[in-house]
Amino acid sequence: MKATIISKLREYDRKTARYKLRFFGEKNALIILLFHSLFTDRDEAASNIIAPQQSITIIQFRRLIAYYLEAGYTFVTPEEIVSGLDPDGKYILLTF
Question: Core-most of 16, 18, 59, 92, by most CB within 10 Å?
Fold first, then answer.
């Protein structure tokens, strides 16, 4: 029962996010993403080594990178942020 509810909530979240992006687009921003680790596959991610919401696989990570590149984001370093970024840009900082 609990798994079904979680599954339905995730499905609702994905659909809602798609509609929001379709109608409102993405705003220029600096997005900072923090990762604790990457797992080789779903089996390793399901091993409960760390909290479930922190279990991202290499394939999911690659999809995330591809999405942001296709959406026009530039990946930046902390040094570039300190030096100043164009306020009209869309940026991503990845941290591990």
Answer: 92
- Residue 8 tokens read as 């339905």
* Cβ atoms within 10 Å of 40's Cβ, excluding its own: 10
The sign of the dihedral angle between the CA atoms of 80, 81, 83, 86 is positive
Give bridge partners of residue 32 from the DSSP assignment.
Answer: 93
| 42-96: pLDDT as tens digits | 666 566 666 555 677 888 889 999 999 999 999 999 999 999 999 999 999 999 8
- Locate 83 and state its tokens: 């030096």
Name the token pair of 20: 């929001």
